[in-house]
Amino acid sequence: MLAKRLALLAVPVLLLVSGAWAQVNELSITAGRTFVSTQTVPSLGLPVHFGNEESIAFNYGRLLKKPKIFGLYAELPVAIFPRMDVNYNLGTTPKDIGALFVTPSARVNIFSGDSVSPWFSAGAGYGRFREAPVTLYENPNPGPTGTNTFVVQFGAGLDVWFWHRWGARFEARDFYSGVPVLNVDTGRSRQHNYYVGVGVVHRF
Fold it and tell me: Which of 16-20, 22-26, 56-60, 66-70 has the highest mean pLDDT?
């Protein structure tokens, strides 16, 4: 009698455990560059140029549903560019800026589970710019050295699974954010931060 009761109790526990293991998690890391387009100071007609600096991105994703050929994931993209040069003829802008973007998102993979899977992503979250404490000509920066911002993220990419649970990831994302404090008026309150990277993705 006791054995039967234990068996009956074991069945739902095994179902719960198997359901938990059936969930698919992903971790990825990519490296690439972030591109910010040139901005112009309208009052003077002078351009502000941004260097296209090395960047890195991390991502955690969890499969929520898999209807037919599609896979719906909740994901957390995190992108960082530690340093991006800022060039302005008058030298009043910060010497460089850095940024961190954290944007919880939803991702849809096509042919989810196959060896080649393109995907699209969208979400929103938090960003923070770091402005250098000095200007281009090494004078003290009169503006702030940290700026918080709301970020909207749109992205697309391709996962190629080449060995068991390991794959290659190619991704391009637009982190549409507020602007860092540049000590000049470019007339903008938002800017596109385009990240393009390649790296590896692991499924577990």
Answer: 56-60
- Sign for the CA dihedral angle at 13, 18, 24, 26 comes to positive
Specify the pLDDT at position 113.
87
One-letter identity of residue 201: V
DSSP summary character for residue 23? S
pTM: 0.87
Six token digits for residue 151: 């970020």
Question: Nearest 5°: CA angle at 156, between 152 and 160?
Answer: 145
Q: Over the chain, what is the mean pLDDT?
A: 90
Which regions of the chain does DSSP assign to beta strands (E)? 25-35, 39-41, 46-50, 54-65, 70-88, 96-102, 105-110, 116-131, 147-163, 166-178, 190-203
Specify the pLDDT at position 23. 56
Cα dihedral 102, 86, 30, 195 in deg (nearest 10): 70
- Tell how strand 166-178 and strand 25-35 pair up: unpaired
For the domain spanning 24-203, the CATH number is 2.40.160.20
Q: How far is CA 91 from the centre of its chain?
A: 31
